[in-house]
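re: the backbone from monday

yeah here it is again, tokenized this time
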């Protein structure tokens, strides 16, 4: 993440800026550095992408909270990589650009004539805790449009051909002047294809596409968490004839674990031991993500003390070392005692003396009777 500017600095807002202030600042920068307003200006395009990345984070409550606490590195640990290109920005913020320029579909209008790239798709994938921790391979069923086999994706009945659109002259775009900027958008008549179909294919009704369900393999890397997404390039909707397909974005949702709670790359859990184990010390078996491990409890350990097993947590999604397993000790109090156990506890309390609640009353018969009543009432 070295070299990235602070997102608040990029947008020119304070850290306490409201969502409306963030949006307003981004709109201003997007207008200023828009690629159609700065053709061939690589620096303006870079500023455009930088502003979009900052807006993506600061307009999203959870991402903004992570960034405020951990900076760019924290977002990177959660799999956030920003935008790969300008087209992806238009695909993500198409509605916002529609508001800015007075028309919808700015994402699709970015392409300068000719066939349009396919739309991106979203798939929500649920993972078990251990699948997210150690990675896995999953098969998913995705329904998407694919080129029609009857017309080979042209949309025209076999034996016929599409004809040039008269509205745009076959260019696929029309020009509009908004304020001082001349913008080109997809032709509303041919929807950017540059051609129209007078005799449509019976199988696809002129769309050139039919819906099919395909099985896809998703490789989930170790260390992912809820909110991260995987990009399967080219697995989205097909583009118009001659244009590339869109992408498939797999959004991950990790189920909770009955024993472990995740905090970054660490896992937290509670380890329960008996009073004698805590008092005298012991070596106990503890559950881990890998199965089981040994934990040494030193004599005199108190309830609530924290122990750590190094390298038993979650592998870093960026390929680094594993986190730790952090355990808080809980001392188990028995709910049922035998007569012998009660006698031993009574003797222990008397040895402890009046400084402990069970020892008050010393060795008098009254004190023993009160202790006996307390034990009977508490433990039955």
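seq for it, each position gets an aa:
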């Amino acid at each position: 993440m070295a070299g990235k500017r602070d997102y608040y600095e990029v947008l020119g807002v304070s850290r306490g800026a409201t969502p409306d202030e963030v949006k307003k600042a981004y709109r201003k920068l997007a207008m200023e550095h828009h690629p159609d307003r700065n053709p061939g200006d690589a620096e303006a395009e870079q500023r455009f992408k930088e502003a979009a990345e900052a807006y993506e984070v600061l307009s999203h409550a959870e991402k903004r909270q992570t960034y405020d606490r951990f900076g760019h590195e924290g977002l990177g640990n959660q799999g956030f990589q920003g935008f790969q290109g300008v087209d992806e920005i238009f695909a993500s913020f198409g509605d916002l650009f529609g508001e800015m320029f007075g028309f919808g579909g700015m994402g699709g209008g970015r392409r300068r004539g000719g066939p349009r790239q396919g739309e991106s798709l979203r798939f929500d994938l649920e993972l078990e805790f251990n699948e997210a921790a150690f990675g896995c391979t999953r098969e998913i069923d995705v329904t998407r449009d694919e080129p029609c086999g009857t017309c080979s994706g042209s949309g025209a009945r076999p034996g016929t051909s599409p004809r040039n659109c008269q509205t745009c002259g076959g260019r696929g775009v029309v020009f509009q002047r908004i304020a001082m900027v001349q913008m080109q958008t997809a032709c509303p008549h041919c929807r950017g294809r540059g051609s129209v179909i007078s005799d449509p294919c019976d199988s696809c009704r002129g769309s050139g596409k039919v819906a099919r369900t395909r099985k896809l393999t998703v490789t989930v890397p170790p260390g992912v968490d809820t909110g991260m997404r995987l990009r399967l390039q080219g697995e989205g909707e097909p583009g118009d004839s001659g244009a590339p397909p869109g992408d498939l974005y797999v959004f991950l949702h990790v189920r909770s674990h009955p024993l472990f709670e995740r905090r970054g790359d660490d896992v937290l859990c509670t380890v329960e031991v008996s009073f004698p184990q805590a008092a005298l010390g012991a070596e106990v078996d503890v559950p881990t993500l890998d199965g089981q491990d040994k934990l040494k409890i030193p004599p005199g350990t108190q309830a609530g003390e924290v122990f750590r097993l190094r390298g038993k947590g979650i592998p870093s999604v960026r390929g680094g070392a594993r986190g730790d397993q952090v355990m808080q000790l809980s001392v188990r109090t028995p709910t049922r005692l035998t007569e012998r156990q009660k006698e031993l506890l009574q003797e222990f309390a008397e040895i402890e003396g009046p400084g402990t609640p069970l020892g008050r009353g010393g060795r008098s018969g009254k004190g023993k009777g009160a202790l006996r009543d307390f034990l009977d009432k508490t433990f039955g």
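Residues 7 and 54 are 5 Å apart (CA to CA). Residues 1-109 form a domain with the Helix Hairpins fold (CATH 1.10.287.110).
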